[in-house]
Design a protein that fits this description.
- This protein is α+β, with helices and mostly antiparallel strands.
- The protein has one domain.
- It contains 2 helices and 5 strands.
- A 5-stranded antiparallel sheet has the order 1-2-3-4-5, with helices on one face.
- A hairpin with a 5-residue loop joins strand 4 and strand 5.
- The protein is globular, with a radius of gyration of 12 Å.
C-alpha cells in the first residue's frame, strides 16, 4: 500500500508502506520522482529526472505541508 498524502501542482506525495523507519516522503509526476527526508530536516535523499527548478518547487511544497506529512507518517506508521 502506498498512501497518497497530497496531490498538488501535478506532484503526488506518498509513502511506501514497507520502508525504512526514518521519516521521509516520495514525490512523483510525469517527468520524474524523488525522495526527501523529513528529519532531522528536509533534505533531498534521491532524485530521478527532476531539474533544479522542480526540486526547489517540491521542497517548497514539502515545507508548506510539513506538519501534514509528519501527521500522516505518524498515523500510518505509528508513533
Amino acid at each position: 500500500m502506498n498512501p497518497t498524502i497530497l496531490r498538488e501542482k501535478g506532484y503526488r506525495f506518498f509513502f511506501f508502506s514497507r520502508e525504512e523507519p526514518r521519516m521521509h516522503v516520495h514525490v512523483m509526476c510525469e517527468s520524474g520522482e524523488a525522495k526527501f527526508w523529513l528529519e532531522p530536516e528536509i533534505e533531498l535523499a534521491k532524485n530521478s529526472k527532476f531539474n533544479r527548478q522542480q526540486l526547489h518547487e517540491i521542497e517548497a511544497l514539502i515545507e508548506a505541508h510539513f506538519h501534514e506529512f509528519i501527521g500522516a507518517w505518524k498515523q500510518h506508521f505509528g508513533g
